[in-house]
Amino acid sequence: MARRTVKRPALSVVVVTHNAERHIVRTVESVLGQDDDVQLVVADCASTDRTAVMCRSIAERDIRLDVLSLDEPDEALAFDQALEAARSRYVLVLRQNDWLAPHALPAVLKTLASEPVELGLLALSVDEDFGTGERRSHLMHFAVPPMHSAEAFRDQAHLFIAEGLLNTLRGKVIDRDRADELGLRLALCGSEMAYMVAYCENVAQVAVIDEAVCHVACADALPEADTRAYQRCEHNHQCLLGLLAAWHRERDAQLLAAVHGLHLRELIACIEGVCALRDISAIERNDRVRDMIKAPSTRTSVAVLGNASREFGFIYGPIARMNVTACCLSARLTQFTRISHLPFFSRAGATLSYA
Question: What separation in angstroms does the CA of 164 have from each of 61, 122, 167, 337?
Fold first, then answer.
């Protein structure tokens, strides 16, 4: 017998899927197995596997699950439609291979019931792929009290920016009414980063929900090494610089360090990706790396960060000196130390941005 739920649930959870049959049941069950006062919206983007069939089968038994089917793999449009179908004012965003730890939803609902929230940040258990089939996890959480003003959030924002949390919607609770008032549509914003920056520009009521843990799959240690990865890196960087300007905090030392530090970590991930390619010549590889390390944005980040070699590992020195050959060698050495589990492996390239 199908479960019955209230007309307007306390929380809606939205997930956009495409060919996710390997993970989607775990994601769905992690939501529906925790609280009755929740709606789950799965928007499937023209999957060619059994994702949509599996979700509809669950929906036949549990009316808390709504399944939307799109005819094209447009994830931005799917997210916008899922948000439109959400019946609750508060919406938690997950990706198709994310899953909620036990008791996460009760912790979220307790927070939403106790105080006004425009933005909720769940703790993230980040699974990293080391390129060998092995995965490791680390918990990303922040002991930060609720923030009740825009200035309070901006004072703490460097913590979230440094970890790439504003690059993505995943693991966030947003106020759908507020998003509607701002006229936000992911299809119009063009990226999750642009959406988050627009949403956070004047956000004032922010809660860090450390008791609620969302398991997420981080980008592989070696992200896709095409031009889109680097373009995304630069796009994200410019979005964050624009946010600092909107906040009139262009000279805030902590925010600048967070923004430029994240930029450099994403850049290092791009360099590692290029150096891992086997189907390009050494000349093309060197040209790509040279363009990245000589870009004005890179030079500015190096100037802002100064002597930060300990944070970014041994590749930082070659980037600072614009030594292309040493950058490529350092990238390969980083890959080797990662695979070999040597103690001086740096997490510099591990971010949420490419997931």
Answer: 38, 14, 5, 24
